[in-house]
Amino acid sequence: MKNLLILLFILSQIFCFGQSDYVVVEGEKLNKYERKVVNPVQYNSLKNTTAVKLYSNHIINLIGKWDHFNDTKFGEEHLVSHCPILVDENNVILEFAIFDQSFHNDLTGSYSFRHYQKQYLTRYAPKNSVLISSQIDEAKKIYVYKLKSPSKFNQNNIYTSYHLIGKKNNKVYRMVIYNIDETNFENFDTFLINTFNNN
Question: pLDDT value at position 14?
Fold first, then answer.
């Protein structure tokens, strides 16, 4: 019995349940990218949805209450360029962008969406990432990856993120969600896929 208690104590020290594995970093001038503030257009409390205007003038609808991430006070991983960064009531961080295919090709140096998708894990995902799982729907052109990656602020901080890249109507969708507590939310891959399908 004593050995069992010791084992449980050790396991409780190793595993940390019910919280994010990401550490938000506070500091001055962490981000070298200047962005205009993009605030949610409107929160609908009856439907529990937030409409957000992207830089590309697209309006997206997200389930839940989201707000603009304070990137002047806190550092963000900057996993999707040229996009607003949002945070919800549980401090989940979402980076979301919709690009015209031609602009996305110029931005990434890819000559097609397929070329970009094939190189995503080796060229565009965070450096030294480890692929945990993937979901691919070739017919719908949806690719979702769950990664463990070192933070750009602290290489010893390995955090979990979900990445969706998709294409529809000649638009490239890129979404990354992190600072997540996987014990306290629906499946994050499902959230991203539903967001893609509904926008």
Answer: 36
Query: What is the Cβ-side half-sphere exposure of residue 188, based on CA atoms within 13 angstroms?
Result: 24
Alpha helices, H only, 88-187: 101-108, 113-119
Q: How many Å is the Cα radius of gyration of the chain?
A: 18
Domain ranges of the chain: 21-198
CATH architecture of 21-198: 3-Layer(aba) Sandwich (3.40)
pTM of the predicted structure, to 2 decimals: 0.83
Give me 138's structure tokens: 């070739």
The confidence score (pLDDT) of residue 13 equals 36
CB neighbours of residue 8 within 10 Å: 10
SS3 category, 187: coil
- Residue 29 is predicted with a pLDDT of 54
**pLDDT score for 32:** 52
Kindly give the parts of the chain with pLDDT less than 50: 1-17
CA distances from residue 38 to 11, 33, 35, 102, 191 in whole angstroms, order as listed: 43, 14, 9, 24, 22
Which helix (H) or strand (E) segment holds residue 86: the answer is strand 85-88
